[in-house]
């Protein structure tokens, strides 16, 4: 029972009102200043149970029994990190060191994590997952997607997805991360496994299917076969596309109505055009370019063409070992041509779009009450004050969680 914005009818006395918000990002253009951020200055927000029921000017806030004083802090929707790889064990410090001495990144490094992940017991894997989730939560992430992809056997992939599903609804089957070492001489045999017995074991635990479509991983035809097989089992496609080189991934994503094409670092004009005329979100992962010293994806080009852009961490121990969405926002603003407003939108509403979710990534009546209180007067400070731990409180589903 959502009350209309700007009125105080139908708000129960037992609701919680957050008052004195210096600037509130709703991501509802019908609220506030009419921009995509739906920004309201001097705002208040009312929460009942797990939902937002009212957002508007502080002076018009309804009176309720529970009052939280934001005391001039900014409030925006919790980050929606739509791309991470958090079921892993081990460490790739040596590989990072070698890269920072000039060695290039290659997909082959994934094998190091596969060996460590297979060797880890379930308790160790889950503890590692939870540790990274808590780390992300403290930095404002309230919705996250995570993938398998470091098991590459039927048992190890299913185990990863079962574990992930205990902690999020957004679980992605990535058996096609690289060809498993045992199949190095028989990639076709591995694709048969991924689309056969492994898919049977994994489909019940996942919502999405993903492929690393890249030289050294899977080509366009293999990727199409894998994503199509997944779709036939009710898994919706998303793709690691055009990360290390130009390739067919983005066009395939659009052809299959993938929710998202992720990385998008090397794009032709035709790729940009295809994304702009599709419902496929371009998910940019600047932590990967930072950590692999690669060229930045061109967010400006995608936005100017009309594509929808999401910003996520790609958190994994190899190519992007950061769980920090604020860090990714700062990179996107400094080096990818995004404005602070665009970067905030992409890390919240954009991530929700990439997961085809309408309940998160916004703070309008009816949304899940997932939010960040920032120790600053506006979200712009995320990029303006890079590296500073400004996240002061995190709420998920109406309750303070960090
Ligand atoms: O998104 N690109 C493929 N997969 C990961 C890297 C995984 C790894 O290096 O362990 C990525 O960057
Ligand atoms: Fe990734």
List keywords for this structure.
EC 3.5.2.7, iron, imidazolonepropionase activity, TIM Barrel, binds fe (iii) ion, HutI, 14 helices, 2 domains, 402 residues, Urease, subunit C, domain 1, eight-stranded parallel sheet
Description:
By secondary structure, the protein is an alpha/beta fold. The protein has two domains: 16-78 and 361-400, Urease, subunit C, domain 1 (Roll), CATH 2.30.40; 80-354, TIM Barrel (Alpha-Beta Barrel), CATH 3.20.20. The chain has 14 helices and 16 strands. Strands 1, 2, 3, 4, 5, 14, 15 and 16 form an eight-stranded mixed beta sheet that branches. Strands 6-7-8-9-10-11-12-13 form an eight-stranded parallel beta sheet. The two termini are 27 Å apart. Mean pLDDT is 96; it is low at 1-7. It binds N-(iminomethyl)-L-glutamic acid and fe (iii) ion (FE). Fe (iii) ion (FE) binds at residues 83, 85, 240, 314.
Report the top-level CATH class of the largest domain. Alpha Beta
The proportion of residues in beta strands is 15-25%
Poorly predicted residue ranges: 1-7
What is the number of strand segments? 16
Present as ligands are: N-(iminomethyl)-L-glutamic acid, fe (iii) ion
The string of secondary-structure elements, in order, is EEEEEEHHHEHEHHEHEHEHEHHEHHEHEE
Question: Count the helices. How many?
Answer: 14
Examine the secondary-structure arrangement and name the CATH architecture of the largest domain: Alpha-Beta Barrel
Distance linking N and C termini: 27 Å
Structural class: alpha/beta
- Give the radius of gyration: 21 Å
CATH superfamily of the largest domain: Metal-dependent hydrolases
Principal-axes geometry comes out as globular
| Rounded mean pLDDT score | 96
CATH-assigned fold name of the largest domain: TIM Barrel
Percent helix, as a range, is: 25-40%
Largest sheet: 8 strands, mixed
């Amino acid at each position: 029972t959502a009350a209309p914005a700007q009125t105080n009818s139908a708000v129960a006395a037992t609701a919680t009102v957050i008052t004195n918000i210096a600037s509130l990002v709703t991501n509802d253009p019908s609220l506030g200043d009419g921009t995509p951020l739906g920004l309201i200055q001097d705002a208040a927000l009312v929460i009942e149970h797990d939902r937002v029921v009212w957002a508007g000017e502080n002076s018009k806030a309804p009176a309720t029994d529970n009052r939280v004083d934001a005391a001039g802090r900014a409030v925006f929707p919790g980050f929606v990190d739509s791309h991470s790889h958090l079921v892993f064990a081990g460490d790739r410090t040596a590989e990072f060191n070698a890269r920072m001495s000039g060695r290039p990144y290659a997909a082959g490094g994934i094998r190091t994590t596969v060996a460590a992940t297979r060797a880890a017991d379930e308790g160790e894997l889950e503890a590692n997952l939870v540790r990274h989730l808590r780390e992300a939560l403290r930095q404002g992430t309230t919705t996250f997607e995570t993938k398998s992809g470091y098991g590459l056997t039927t048992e190890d992939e299913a185990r990863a997805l079962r574990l992930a599903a205990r902690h999020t609804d957004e679980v992605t089957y990535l058996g096609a991360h690289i060809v498993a070492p045992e199949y190095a001489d028989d990639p076709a045999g591995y694709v048969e496994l991924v689309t056969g017995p492994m898919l049977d074991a994994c489909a019940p635990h996942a919502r999405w299917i993903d492929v690393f479509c890249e030289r050294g991983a899977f080509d366009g035809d293999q990727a199409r076969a894998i994503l199509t097989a997944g779709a036939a089992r009710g898994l919706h496609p998303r793709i690691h596309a055009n990360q290390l080189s130009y390739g067919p991934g983005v066009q395939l994503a659009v052809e299959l109505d993938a929710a998202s094409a992720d990385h998008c670092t090397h794009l032709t004009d035709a790729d940009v055009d295809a994304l702009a005329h599709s419902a496929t979100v371009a998910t940019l992962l600047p932590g990967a370019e930072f950590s692999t010293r690669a060229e930045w994806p061109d967010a400006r080009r995608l936005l100017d063409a009309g594509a929808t852009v999401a910003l996520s961490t790609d958190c994994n121990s190899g190519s992007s070992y950061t769980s920090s969405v604020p860090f990714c926002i700062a990179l996107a603003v400094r080096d990818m041509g995004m404005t602070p407003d665009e970067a905030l939108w992409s890390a919240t509403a954009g991530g929700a779009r990439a997961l085809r979710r309408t309940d998160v990534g916004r703070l309008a009546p009816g949304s899940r009450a997932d939010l960040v209180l920032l120790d600053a007067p506006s979200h712009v400070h995320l990029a303006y004050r890079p590296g500073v731990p400004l996240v002061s409180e995190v709420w998920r589903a109406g309750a303070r969680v960090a």
